[in-house]
Amino acid sequence: MVYAIVRAGGRQEKVEVGTILTIDRIKSDEQGNITLAPVLLVDGDKITSDATSLAKVTVTAEVLNDLRGPKIVIQKFKNKTGYKKRQGFRADLTRVKVTGIK
């Protein structure tokens, strides 16, 4: 079983070939592919974590679609002063499918 821990959008995700991830919005190349930076690689019983060996490893993924996350409502309120503020936020996300770990 081969899997990798990759850095994607400020977080670390465990991926195998065929895994579908939802990460922060990322630009793809002309063919719709991206490469993710590996932090750890597990190939059966062999575990690779040093930076020189991981520089040779590439984790490729194809972009399935771009989407937006759920709305987060931020509300501030101060009692007895009449101050209230309401703000919303929706994250820009990208759904990707891992196609190869080499």
Automatic annotation (TrEMBL):
Molecular function per GO: rRNA binding; structural constituent of ribosome
Domain of life: Bacteria
Alphabetically ordered keywords of this record: Ribonucleoprotein, Ribosomal protein, RNA-binding, rRNA-binding
GO biological process: translation
Cellular component per GO, a single term: cytoplasm
Record's subunit section: Part of the 50S ribosomal subunit. Contacts protein L20.
PANTHER family: 50S RIBOSOMAL PROTEIN L21 (PTHR21349), LARGE RIBOSOMAL SUBUNIT PROTEIN BL21M (PTHR21349:SF0)
HAMAP family, per database record: Ribosomal_bL21
Described purpose of this protein according to its UniProt entry: This protein binds to 23S rRNA in the presence of protein L20.
Family to which this protein belongs: Belongs to the bacterial ribosomal protein bL21 family.
UniProt-recorded name of the protein: Large ribosomal subunit protein bL21
Annotated source species: Arenivirga flava
